[in-house]
Design brief:
Strand order of the largest sheet: 5-6-7-3-8-9
Number of helices: 8
Bound molecules: adenosine-5'-diphosphate
Distance between the termini: 38 Å
Structural class: alpha/beta
Largest sheet: 6 strands, mixed
Strand content: 15-25%
Length: 258
Protein backbone atom coordinates (compact mmCIF):
# COMPACT_ATOMS: atom_id res chain seq x y z
CA UNK A 1 0.00 0.00 0.00
CA UNK A 2 1.41 3.47 -0.85
CA UNK A 3 2.57 5.66 2.07
CA UNK A 4 -0.24 7.73 3.52
CA UNK A 5 -2.98 5.32 2.50
CA UNK A 6 -4.82 3.54 5.30
CA UNK A 7 -7.49 1.52 3.48
CA UNK A 8 -7.13 -0.13 0.09
CA UNK A 9 -9.66 -2.47 -1.51
CA UNK A 10 -8.90 -4.20 -4.78
CA UNK A 11 -11.53 -6.08 -6.78
CA UNK A 12 -13.48 -6.74 -3.59
CA UNK A 13 -16.82 -8.54 -3.74
CA UNK A 14 -19.08 -10.29 -1.27
CA UNK A 15 -21.60 -12.98 -2.07
CA UNK A 16 -23.40 -14.29 1.01
CA UNK A 17 -23.85 -18.02 1.51
CA UNK A 18 -27.52 -17.69 0.50
CA UNK A 19 -26.39 -16.45 -2.92
CA UNK A 20 -27.07 -12.74 -2.34
CA UNK A 21 -24.44 -10.72 -4.21
CA UNK A 22 -24.13 -7.83 -1.77
CA UNK A 23 -21.07 -5.85 -2.85
CA UNK A 24 -18.80 -5.22 -5.79
CA UNK A 25 -16.51 -6.00 -7.32
CA UNK A 26 -15.08 -2.61 -6.37
CA UNK A 27 -11.86 -0.75 -5.62
CA UNK A 28 -11.56 1.82 -2.84
CA UNK A 29 -8.65 3.91 -1.58
CA UNK A 30 -8.82 5.98 1.58
CA UNK A 31 -5.92 8.24 2.53
CA UNK A 32 -4.88 8.98 6.11
CA UNK A 33 -6.95 11.73 7.68
CA UNK A 34 -9.75 11.69 5.11
CA UNK A 35 -13.42 11.97 6.02
CA UNK A 36 -15.43 10.03 3.45
CA UNK A 37 -19.10 9.11 3.36
CA UNK A 38 -20.83 6.22 1.63
CA UNK A 39 -24.40 6.82 0.54
CA UNK A 40 -26.54 4.47 -1.47
CA UNK A 41 -29.96 2.86 -1.78
CA UNK A 42 -31.07 0.78 1.18
CA UNK A 43 -29.71 -2.76 0.92
CA UNK A 44 -26.96 -1.83 -1.55
CA UNK A 45 -24.23 -3.30 0.63
CA UNK A 46 -22.93 -0.31 2.63
CA UNK A 47 -22.85 -2.17 5.95
CA UNK A 48 -21.34 -5.22 4.30
CA UNK A 49 -18.58 -3.05 2.84
CA UNK A 50 -17.87 -1.46 6.22
CA UNK A 51 -17.83 -4.85 7.93
CA UNK A 52 -15.32 -6.15 5.37
CA UNK A 53 -13.05 -3.15 6.02
CA UNK A 54 -13.34 -3.86 9.75
CA UNK A 55 -12.43 -7.52 9.23
CA UNK A 56 -15.82 -8.60 10.63
CA UNK A 57 -16.82 -10.19 7.33
CA UNK A 58 -14.56 -11.85 4.77
CA UNK A 59 -14.74 -10.85 1.09
CA UNK A 60 -15.51 -13.69 -1.30
CA UNK A 61 -13.18 -12.10 -3.82
CA UNK A 62 -10.39 -9.52 -3.84
CA UNK A 63 -8.14 -8.05 -1.19
CA UNK A 64 -8.94 -5.74 1.73
CA UNK A 65 -5.86 -4.01 3.09
CA UNK A 66 -5.91 -1.89 6.26
CA UNK A 67 -2.84 -0.05 7.59
CA UNK A 68 -1.51 -1.26 10.91
CA UNK A 69 -1.12 1.07 13.85
CA UNK A 70 2.11 1.64 15.69
CA UNK A 71 1.68 -1.51 17.76
CA UNK A 72 1.55 -3.42 14.49
CA UNK A 73 -2.10 -4.48 14.76
CA UNK A 74 -4.52 -3.87 11.93
CA UNK A 75 -7.40 -5.03 14.12
CA UNK A 76 -6.73 -2.47 16.83
CA UNK A 77 -6.40 0.29 14.31
CA UNK A 78 -10.15 0.43 13.76
CA UNK A 79 -12.95 1.76 15.94
CA UNK A 80 -16.48 0.78 14.89
CA UNK A 81 -19.61 2.75 15.74
CA UNK A 82 -22.97 1.11 15.03
CA UNK A 83 -26.40 2.70 14.65
CA UNK A 84 -27.44 1.22 18.00
CA UNK A 85 -25.20 2.36 20.85
CA UNK A 86 -25.25 -1.25 22.24
CA UNK A 87 -24.28 -0.27 25.79
CA UNK A 88 -24.30 -2.65 28.75
CA UNK A 89 -27.25 -1.38 30.85
CA UNK A 90 -25.81 -2.65 34.14
CA UNK A 91 -22.47 -0.86 33.72
CA UNK A 92 -21.58 2.80 34.21
CA UNK A 93 -20.59 5.06 31.33
CA UNK A 94 -16.91 4.60 32.33
CA UNK A 95 -17.14 0.83 32.39
CA UNK A 96 -18.90 0.76 29.03
CA UNK A 97 -16.12 2.85 27.49
CA UNK A 98 -13.47 0.72 29.24
CA UNK A 99 -14.70 -2.54 27.70
CA UNK A 100 -12.29 -2.73 24.69
CA UNK A 101 -9.33 -2.03 27.01
CA UNK A 102 -10.52 -4.65 29.48
CA UNK A 103 -10.80 -7.19 26.66
CA UNK A 104 -7.19 -6.36 25.68
CA UNK A 105 -6.05 -6.69 29.34
CA UNK A 106 -4.85 -3.09 29.62
CA UNK A 107 -3.83 -2.30 33.23
CA UNK A 108 -6.41 -0.41 35.29
CA UNK A 109 -4.33 2.74 35.89
CA UNK A 110 -3.62 3.09 32.17
CA UNK A 111 -7.19 2.40 31.23
CA UNK A 112 -8.45 5.01 33.73
CA UNK A 113 -6.46 7.68 31.92
CA UNK A 114 -7.64 6.60 28.49
CA UNK A 115 -11.29 6.30 29.51
CA UNK A 116 -11.12 9.78 31.07
CA UNK A 117 -9.63 11.20 27.90
CA UNK A 118 -12.17 9.52 25.61
CA UNK A 119 -15.06 10.81 27.72
CA UNK A 120 -13.58 14.28 27.57
CA UNK A 121 -13.23 14.02 23.77
CA UNK A 122 -16.97 13.40 23.43
CA UNK A 123 -18.00 15.94 26.09
CA UNK A 124 -19.18 13.43 28.68
CA UNK A 125 -16.52 13.78 31.41
CA UNK A 126 -19.17 14.67 34.00
CA UNK A 127 -21.22 11.56 33.26
CA UNK A 128 -18.54 8.95 33.93
CA UNK A 129 -20.52 7.42 36.81
CA UNK A 130 -23.96 7.56 35.16
CA UNK A 131 -25.83 4.53 33.84
CA UNK A 132 -27.10 4.27 30.25
CA UNK A 133 -30.77 4.57 31.36
CA UNK A 134 -30.00 8.04 32.70
CA UNK A 135 -28.77 9.28 29.32
CA UNK A 136 -30.50 10.76 26.26
CA UNK A 137 -30.15 9.08 22.85
CA UNK A 138 -27.49 11.57 21.82
CA UNK A 139 -25.49 10.97 25.00
CA UNK A 140 -25.67 7.20 24.52
CA UNK A 141 -24.25 7.68 21.04
CA UNK A 142 -21.45 9.79 22.55
CA UNK A 143 -20.63 6.90 24.91
CA UNK A 144 -20.53 4.56 21.93
CA UNK A 145 -18.19 6.98 20.15
CA UNK A 146 -15.96 7.23 23.24
CA UNK A 147 -15.79 3.43 23.37
CA UNK A 148 -14.59 3.41 19.75
CA UNK A 149 -12.00 6.13 20.48
CA UNK A 150 -10.63 4.64 23.69
CA UNK A 151 -8.15 2.32 21.94
CA UNK A 152 -6.92 5.33 19.96
CA UNK A 153 -7.48 3.79 16.51
CA UNK A 154 -6.40 5.72 13.42
CA UNK A 155 -9.58 4.72 11.60
CA UNK A 156 -13.21 5.16 12.64
CA UNK A 157 -15.88 3.23 10.75
CA UNK A 158 -19.37 4.55 11.45
CA UNK A 159 -22.53 2.79 10.27
CA UNK A 160 -25.44 5.24 10.26
CA UNK A 161 -24.55 6.32 13.80
CA UNK A 162 -26.93 9.27 14.06
CA UNK A 163 -29.90 7.91 12.06
CA UNK A 164 -32.13 7.42 15.11
CA UNK A 165 -31.53 10.87 16.60
CA UNK A 166 -33.67 13.98 16.28
CA UNK A 167 -32.35 16.65 13.93
CA UNK A 168 -31.02 19.13 16.50
CA UNK A 169 -29.11 16.40 18.34
CA UNK A 170 -27.84 15.08 15.05
CA UNK A 171 -26.55 18.50 13.95
CA UNK A 172 -24.77 18.90 17.27
CA UNK A 173 -23.18 15.46 16.98
CA UNK A 174 -22.16 16.24 13.39
CA UNK A 175 -20.29 19.34 14.60
CA UNK A 176 -18.71 17.52 17.52
CA UNK A 177 -17.64 14.65 15.27
CA UNK A 178 -15.98 17.13 12.90
CA UNK A 179 -14.16 18.69 15.86
CA UNK A 180 -12.97 15.23 16.97
CA UNK A 181 -11.88 14.41 13.42
CA UNK A 182 -9.88 17.64 13.16
CA UNK A 183 -8.33 17.47 16.63
CA UNK A 184 -7.54 13.77 16.82
CA UNK A 185 -6.72 13.45 13.09
CA UNK A 186 -8.70 10.27 12.53
CA UNK A 187 -9.60 8.76 9.19
CA UNK A 188 -13.38 8.40 9.06
CA UNK A 189 -15.55 6.25 6.80
CA UNK A 190 -19.16 7.20 7.48
CA UNK A 191 -22.24 5.41 6.18
CA UNK A 192 -25.43 7.45 6.07
CA UNK A 193 -28.85 7.53 4.43
CA UNK A 194 -28.78 11.28 4.51
CA UNK A 195 -27.36 13.13 1.53
CA UNK A 196 -27.45 16.32 3.65
CA UNK A 197 -25.37 14.74 6.38
CA UNK A 198 -22.86 13.29 3.90
CA UNK A 199 -22.28 16.64 2.21
CA UNK A 200 -22.04 18.50 5.51
CA UNK A 201 -19.42 16.17 6.94
CA UNK A 202 -17.28 14.80 4.17
CA UNK A 203 -14.36 15.65 1.98
CA UNK A 204 -15.48 12.90 -0.39
CA UNK A 205 -18.93 11.39 -0.90
CA UNK A 206 -19.12 8.03 -2.67
CA UNK A 207 -22.50 7.14 -4.11
CA UNK A 208 -23.03 3.40 -4.33
CA UNK A 209 -25.21 1.68 -6.91
CA UNK A 210 -28.00 -0.76 -6.09
CA UNK A 211 -26.99 -4.24 -4.99
CA UNK A 212 -24.42 -5.54 -5.64
CA UNK A 213 -23.08 -2.17 -4.48
CA UNK A 214 -20.30 -0.57 -6.47
CA UNK A 215 -18.93 2.94 -6.38
CA UNK A 216 -21.21 4.68 -8.87
CA UNK A 217 -20.05 8.23 -8.51
CA UNK A 218 -17.60 10.17 -6.40
CA UNK A 219 -17.82 13.82 -5.29
CA UNK A 220 -14.96 15.81 -3.79
CA UNK A 221 -15.88 18.57 -1.38
CA UNK A 222 -12.48 19.13 0.17
CA UNK A 223 -12.23 22.77 -0.88
CA UNK A 224 -15.57 23.68 0.67
CA UNK A 225 -14.08 25.37 3.76
CA UNK A 226 -15.60 25.65 7.23
CA UNK A 227 -18.49 23.31 8.02
CA UNK A 228 -20.69 25.39 10.26
CA UNK A 229 -24.16 26.90 10.55
CA UNK A 230 -23.39 29.31 7.68
CA UNK A 231 -22.37 26.44 5.43
CA UNK A 232 -25.58 24.58 6.27
CA UNK A 233 -27.66 27.45 4.91
CA UNK A 234 -25.39 28.36 2.00
CA UNK A 235 -26.22 28.12 -1.70
CA UNK A 236 -23.07 26.00 -2.19
CA UNK A 237 -24.30 23.42 0.32
CA UNK A 238 -27.73 23.25 -1.33
CA UNK A 239 -26.11 22.86 -4.75
CA UNK A 240 -23.82 20.05 -3.56
CA UNK A 241 -26.78 18.27 -1.95
CA UNK A 242 -28.69 18.49 -5.22
CA UNK A 243 -25.78 16.98 -7.16
CA UNK A 244 -25.43 14.07 -4.76
CA UNK A 245 -29.20 13.51 -4.61
CA UNK A 246 -29.36 13.34 -8.40
CA UNK A 247 -26.52 10.79 -8.45
CA UNK A 248 -28.25 8.77 -5.74
CA UNK A 249 -31.54 8.78 -7.67
CA UNK A 250 -29.68 7.62 -10.80
CA UNK A 251 -27.84 4.90 -8.83
CA UNK A 252 -31.10 3.70 -7.30
CA UNK A 253 -32.75 3.50 -10.69
CA UNK A 254 -30.13 1.15 -12.13
CA UNK A 255 -32.04 -1.98 -11.20
CA UNK A 256 -35.46 -0.57 -11.99
CA UNK A 257 -38.38 -1.40 -9.70
CA UNK A 258 -37.43 -1.81 -6.03
P1 LIG B 1 -27.03 -1.58 3.40
O1 LIG B 1 -26.13 -1.38 4.57
O2 LIG B 1 -26.62 -0.78 2.20
O3 LIG B 1 -28.49 -1.38 3.71
P2 LIG B 1 -26.33 -4.40 3.72
O4 LIG B 1 -24.86 -4.47 3.57
O5 LIG B 1 -26.89 -4.43 5.10
O6 LIG B 1 -26.87 -3.11 2.92
O7 LIG B 1 -27.00 -5.58 2.90
C1 LIG B 1 -26.75 -5.81 1.53
C2 LIG B 1 -27.54 -7.00 1.04
O8 LIG B 1 -27.01 -8.18 1.63
C3 LIG B 1 -29.00 -6.96 1.44
O9 LIG B 1 -29.76 -7.50 0.39
C4 LIG B 1 -29.07 -7.84 2.67
O10 LIG B 1 -30.34 -8.45 2.79
C5 LIG B 1 -28.01 -8.87 2.38
N1 LIG B 1 -27.38 -9.39 3.59
C6 LIG B 1 -26.82 -8.65 4.60
N2 LIG B 1 -26.28 -9.45 5.54
C7 LIG B 1 -26.53 -10.73 5.13
C8 LIG B 1 -26.24 -12.03 5.67
N3 LIG B 1 -25.58 -12.16 6.83
N4 LIG B 1 -26.65 -13.10 4.98
C9 LIG B 1 -27.30 -12.97 3.81
N5 LIG B 1 -27.61 -11.80 3.24
C10 LIG B 1 -27.23 -10.68 3.88
Amino acid sequence: MPAGRVIQLRDVAKVYDNGVAAVGPLDLDVEAGEFISLVGPSGCGKSTLLRMIAGLSAPTRGVVDVARNMQGHSKHNIGFVFQEPTLMPWATVSDNVRLPLKLSHVARDQSDVRVGQALQDVGLAEFAGAYPRELSGGMKMRVSLARALVTDPDILLMDEPFAALDEITRFKLNDDLLAIWRTLRKTIVFVTHSVFESVYLSQRVLVMTSRPGRIGKEFRFDSVGARDADFRTSADYAAHCREVSAALAAASAVEGVR
